[in-house]
Each structure stands twice: as C-alpha cells, then as structure tokens.
Amino acid sequence: VKKSAHLTLVNDLETSAIEISDRGLAYGDGLFETLRVVDGKVPLLPYHLKRFSLGVKALKLGNPLSIADQLERYVRIALKDAFKHAHLKSAVIKVIVTRGHGGRGYRPSPEPELNFITQVYEYPDFPSSNYSEGISLQLCQHRLSHQPALSGIKHLNRLDQVLASAELEASGSEEGLMLDYQGNAIEGTKSNILLVENNKLITPNLEQAGVAGTMRQYLIDNAEAIGFEFEEKNVSLEQLKSADGLAVMNSVFGLWPVKEFAGKRYAVHKICGTIQSHLKAQLSY
Amino acid sequence: VKKSAHLTLVNDLETSAIEISDRGLAYGDGLFETLRVVDGKVPLLPYHLKRFSLGVKALKLGNPLSIADQLERYVRIALKDAFKHAHLKSAVIKVIVTRGHGGRGYRPSPEPELNFITQVYEYPDFPSSNYSEGISLQLCQHRLSHQPALSGIKHLNRLDQVLASAELEASGSEEGLMLDYQGNAIEGTKSNILLVENNKLITPNLEQAGVAGTMRQYLIDNAEAIGFEFEEKNVSLEQLKSADGLAVMNSVFGLWPVKEFAGKRYAVHKICGTIQSHLKAQLSY
After folding, report:
1. How far is CA B84 from the centre of its chain?
2. Of the partner residues B18, B149, B168, the one whose CB lies closest to the CB of residue A25
3. Has B154 been annotated as catalytic?
4. Which chain A residue shows the shortest CA-CA distance from B191?
5. Are residues A217 and A241 in contact, defined by beta-carbon separation less than 8 angstroms?
6. Looking at CA atoms only, how far is residue A83 from chain B in angstroms?
7. How many CA atoms lie within 13 A of B163 on its CB side?
8. Is A128 exposed, middle or buried (0-12, 13-18, 19+ CB in 10 A)?
9. Are A28 and B157 inside 8 Å of each other by CB?
10. Which tens digits make up the pLDDT trace of A181-224?
C-alpha cells in the first residue's frame, strides 16, 4: 500500500481536504503529473512541463505556458519540503490540477480558477530483481477507450487504468498490458512499453489512445545518443510475443525488463542494461 | 450558474470537504446519480437504483444490491432535508459514490470503503419556452470515446461531456449533440435524444458509448402504454436531419423538443406534447 503523503497542499494552503464541488471530483476535469525526485532534483521536469502544457491545451484550461509555470512553482515548493526530510532525497511528487469549482453542470466556466493539489510521497521500495531479472506482464482483458482527442495527455479520467490494474490482483503480476479495441498493444497500466526487434527499439504510437510517458519521450529523444534506432508505430499482440526483448518504463521506476508475458518467457535483452546504465549516469535513476 | 448546495454530506457527516486522497478525485473512480425531487418524492428512483447497480457491477465496487441500498438511504436523508425547506419541494439531489481512498496507485483495494457524497440543490428555473417552443441543439465537434465496457453507466470520467459542452459557450445553444467516432449520433451532453420517424419513436443504442438516462429508460418501458412504438438503433447524422421531430430528455427537465439543429428547423411534433402530458400526469413533471 502506498504510504500516505508527507506534504499535502491545496494551492498554497497546507490541508488534506478539498471542496466536494471541485470539478476534479465531479467529472475528472483536470490533469496530473507524478514526478520522481532524485538527490533533490526532478531529472525529467522539462518533459513533465511539456506534456502538462499539451494537457492544458487539450482541456482548454487556459494559457499553457503560464499554467505550466504555476505547476513548476508547486513542484519547487514540494522539492523544498522533501529536502527538509533527509530520507526524502528520493521522493515522488504528485500534482493534480483541476478546473476548480463552478460552471453550469458539465459546462465549464470560461474563466476557471484552477486548483493545484500537491503531494509528496516517499519513493517506493521496488525489488532490485525487477531491474535485473525483469517482471511478469499480464495481458489485461479491459481495453483502452478510443479517444484521439485526449490521447497522450495525463488527465484525471483513469477508469481504464483502474479496471485493468484490478485484474492484476489475482495473478500478482507487477504490470498489465492494455490493448485498444483494434487489438493494438498500447501501454501498461502505469507504464509505456518498449520492444526490441533486430537491435532496434520500438514503442507503440499513442495517437488513438494511451498516455505519452515522460520516460518514453526521454528515450525517444535520446535514443541516438545512447546508440539505438527508435521507432513509434502500431504494434500487434503477435509482434509483442515475437519480440527479441520487452520492457516497461515510466518516470518513477525507470526501466524494467519483462521476463514473462502471456505464457512466453523473454531473456533480459542487453539493450535493457545499456539503457539502465544510461539512466543511472545521466539522470541518477 | 448552478446555485450552491443546500445540504452536503460525506457519508453521514455534514461537511463540504473530502480528502484529496479520494480515488474519485485522483482517477474519477466512482459513479454518480442526479435525481429530481417533485413534491417530496423522487419519481424515477427505481430507474436510478437500477442504473446505479449496473455501474457498481461494471466498476466492481462491491455487492450491487447492498450498495444500491446505501445509495437509497442517502437519497432519503437528502429528501428529508429538502422537505424541511418549503421552497425545496422541487429539488435536485446529487449523490457521488467513490471507491474511497487507498489502493496501490491505480490498483484498487480488493475491499474498498466507498464514500457517499450527497448534495441537495434547488430545482433550476428552466424557461417555459424550452417545453413549448423547443431548444436549439448544436452539433459538437468533440466526439464521444469508444468504450463498450463503460457505456450506459454514469461514472465520474466525464471529460467528453465537459469538452463538448464547452463548445456551447459561443453559440448559447441549450444543448449539444455528440457523435461517436463512427459518426453515429449518440446523445446530448446532458441528455438523451429522441427522434420521431413516421409516428414511431427512435433513440440511439448506447452499446458502444453514452449514458443510459433514466428518463430514456422510463419512456422505453412505457412507450406502449403511452401509445407509441419505440426502437433503440444506430442513428446517423443524416437520419437526425431528416427526422419528422426531434427532442432531448433527461430526468431533471423531462422532455424538450428541438426547434433547430445544424441549420435545420423542426416543428414541435405532437408526440412531444403527448409525452409531456404523460410525464406531468404520471410523474408530476
């Protein structure tokens, strides 16, 4: 069970409560970012701010740049707080941004007063074998909604992820693989996926569904520097099963190889180690 | 702007605040019902309880019957409160039910402690011309997510409705019509739709997307008694434009004819008057 938060702010007020009239609760009308803190820094901060800006634009919350500035301000407040506790040099910051309250039913106010909800958590204690030996990935029965207008962004409508991850309860698998309704492999419930085919990296394109993770984007941007070709494209279930290697990634845990998926066992591909070393050297992951 | 709530409860506690750790805020992990009170009664209560039970089942929140019993209990508490204020004989009760807090990220606890959030509002003052002359219906550009696993139920993931209804700001239309990604007409942003074709009633089927409204279900169940054939089927945009009559319906306002949609004007079909009279006689709408 996730530890309770060390710091909780609603805007600049230290409180753990929010008005029930908030549109985040009523409609999931908002966005969130979950950021890893290492040694008092947030290595992927620019990637989070970029993805968040795209979300602000998609949800028409206001000026993307100035709202991303506000997000950054709350991340820095949270960082200072995490710093105060020596054991929180590694931490996770979560910021939820909602369209505040008001409006007429679903219809939003044209000039919303956003609410920023900031939480600081301890960094979870992941088994080291997740990194060295890999994890079990389970094929989820629940499929992702088809919604190109909201794909890529990290909004608060997350019933797909909730229902898919509930399927992991019985098996104890660390992660679940979600398909869309066309049968494309899209992502994990809390991660993006990475395939190795002929020493080339592939990740599913997310134009129709899915969350464009910041670690995924970092690796796309830095693949060449690390020494690999990287391609975004449609990925079928069969392709996943016949890949030379498979991994899951997100900005909290970094990269975990997959050792087993849908009855197939995978060797840990050497590219996984190369990426992990790069993340350690460049981002202190 | 919707008036603020007269009574707000979180479970049995009179408060207007909820913990920010609630999964309703974090993921939209829950359901809601909005119920009209007339003369101290909720005429469509059995329909709300039925739809709510289907939602409990779809989200795997627990035992549908016992959770629906709890919903009914909060509705009755709200009714008593509305009764205390003479001017609230007509009122609207909204109950949000969330999976509470806890779990590991998206993954829900196998034994969640649900939160019931109850609010009582004054009945909105709709223009009488909405009933007699009809309303303008605007074609929304934002399309509904394709998600058969969640269609029909009234869950808290409502970004589609928020974004579609934001489009009404510029035109001032009372309601917006939403299509799915196949181009089928599905529903209004806050209502279901009704077509008249050769004196027969038609409403879009909601197996792929949409909310199965309680007024819609009431009319399906009672069409024969009122004297009409009623069919659920796929409806194209063209069919909508060539219909003999068009109306929107929900459990709060009842039934409004559509006088204009996508550049086409519609006469108020006499069936609309027949249904309105029935709703007044049978449900005091």
Report:
1. 26
2. B18
3. yes
4. A106
5. no
6. 23
7. 25
8. exposed
9. yes
10. 999 999 999 999 999 999 999 999 999 999 999 999 999 999 99
Band of residue A103 on the pLDDT scale cut at 50, 70, 90: confident
Among B residues 75-114, those touching chain A with beta carbons less than 8 Å apart: 96, 98-99, 102-110
Query: What ipTM was estimated for this complex?
Result: 0.96
- Interface size, chain A vs chain B, as Cβ–Cβ contacts under 8 Å: 182
pTM: 0.96
**What per-residue confidence (pLDDT) applies to A4?**
65
What pLDDT is attached to residue B1? 36
pLDDT-derived band at A1 (thresholds 50, 70, 90) equals very low
Catalytic, B50? Answer no
Please judge whether B163 and A23 are an interchain contact, meaning their C-beta atoms are less than 8 angstroms apart: no
- Find residues 209-268 of chain B whose CB sits inside 8 Å of chain A: none
On whether any CB of chain A is under 8 Å from the CB of B146, the answer is yes
Is B190 designated active site?
no
Task: Please determine, for residue A5, whether its predicted confidence score (pLDDT) is greater than 60.
Answer: yes
Position B185 scores a pLDDT of 98
Q: What is the DSSP string of chain A?
A: -PPPPSEEEETTEE-SEEETT-HHHHH--EEEEEEEEBTTB-TTHHHHHHHHHHHHHHTT-S-HHHHHHHHHHHHHHHHHHHHHSGGGSSEEEEEEEE--S-SBTTBPPSS---EEEEEEEEPP---THHHHT-EEEEE-SSPPPB-GGGTBS-BS--HHHHHHHHTHHHH--SEEEEE-TTSBEEEESSSEEEEEETTEEEEE--SSSSB--HHHHHHHHHHHHHT--EEEE--BHHHHHH-SEEEEEETTTEEEEEEEETTEE----HHHHHHHHHHHHHH--
**Per residue in A40-88, pLDDT tens?**
899 999 999 999 999 999 999 999 999 999 999 999 999 998 877 656 6
Is B165 in Cβ contact with A106 (below 8 Å)?
yes
**B237: three-class secondary structure by DSSP:** helix
Q: Which of B2, B22, B159 sits opposite A150 (nearest CB)?
A: B159
Q: Does A59 touch chain B (CB under 8 A)?
A: yes
